[in-house]
Records
---
Amino acid sequence: MNDSNFLKENNARSLWHPMSHPADSHANPPTIVTGAQGVRITDVDGHEVVDGVGGLWNVNLGFSCQPIKDAITAQLDQLPYYSIFRGTSNDTVIHLAEELRKFFEPDGLSRAFFTSGGSDSVETALRLSRQYHKIRGDGSRTKFLSLKKGYHGTHFGGASVNGNANFRTAYEPLLAGCHHIPAPYTYRNPFNETDPERLAQLCLSALEDEISFQGAGTIAAFIMEPILGAGGVIPPHESFMPGLREICTRNGILLIADEVITAFGRTGSWTGSRHWGVQPDLMCTAKAITNGYFPFGAVMLSDAFAETFEKDESGKAAVGHGYTYSGHPVGAAAALACLGETQKLNVPLKAAARGAQLHKGLLDLQVKYGVIGDVRGGHGLMCAMELVSDRTAKTPIDKNTINGVQERTYRAGAMVRVSGPNIILSPPLVLTEDDVNVILSALDKGLADT
């Protein structure tokens, strides 16, 4: 089964890859990763590179975090599975919930609803938001607002609040009552505004206008990523999320922070919400909660939100939602170990330092290569380069050209991710200064022939 010819010949025969055209795997065979150590991955041909993608934004501690692996093994021997649906629980998930309560206390979050991953967490937050208003006798609040360019997973609810047509068009009609406002994206926005602070205010004004148009009493929640990730790494001005928090509070709208990517240190702060000094009503997490070693997620809830459910005597607060693997004991064990290592290593400090190095290196590459239209980052280890064929017209680069950049970069020593005209970088938070230099050198070689 490990023969390289077998793997290459059979990859596309009986396997469909997510986020790709089924025929593409035949025409353009993927990189087959067969090993990983530290922050490096090895493919089926023995080629080793620095993983500039961090798995998929989730392997914050690298591929060799032994305490998490040991915790998974020990839990499999002790209790490999049991449900936490009504009437049963397990010891490991109770311990995890208490540790998460402590970790998220600065965010004003104290209860956990466990899920199987990021899309599940978003779906849970959307559902519970609607239920919250119904418990309060405000059942007309059913709509959701979100940002264009935002990404919130692949369930019907998440796809409906997604702000990228690539994840919507083929599956429409989606959930009714989902509306979008412009993202604070200085490189491309409908206001033709390049000043980040001014753009933030224009986007907030657009939000106020949309709330007025829809009617505040019809809106359940606003969902946003503190820094937009899959949409191309779009950091807002520091005034944006606090301003949004104030508008939501004033209008009785819940604020859902989608921190599937940004929680646990990636922004250079422990959470993205904390990075901007905001306390959301709900926070969606997953990915780095187990370092990618086990599918797991959690929606964290504020006291006020949770107490609305807990103090209900009408029966409306019975939660008719959950997953077979909610609170999986093996996932909980992995998350406990991961949280311990994340805090022990103080990864936000590492993310901030290496992120600043990476961001500066990308800006230097922009000076060297006219194909780089925009560089975004500066907040931990989340960076992107937007490639264009014409800087003045901001014409997005064609697919074949950017794919060529990715392939040459890989051959030169670094795995990077392509999303539309963007090259996105989200490496493990434990990489070294030398590892960052490898990524930058590989990108330099990858861009050389464009």
Note: The mean pLDDT is 97.
---
Amino acid sequence: MEATKTKAKAQTQTDNSSKTTTDHEEIRRWVEDRGGKPALVKGTEGKDDEHAGLLRIKFQEDEKLEETDWETFFATFDEKNLQFLYQEETKEHKTSRFFKFISDKK
């Protein structure tokens, strides 16, 4: 599977406080702008190496999280048909780290 989505396939929706997207570059920018790294929850990967595990964003040291590369992260993101729900800033206009992975059931 190709590691990056084309702009035509990616989607972004927004309301007053949050946005959802499937655009890999938009997600990567948001995460890296906040000092985050793509990660997986240790112990949730499949035994057959086909399933990488539960996705997370690592902002600080956490022994339960294992950093991964963006290619693995986005392959899992696409395989699970996820959307990235996130907030650019808080009500107080400060940089927000709020995010959530949601199912993109079609």
Note: The longest strand covers residues 37-41.
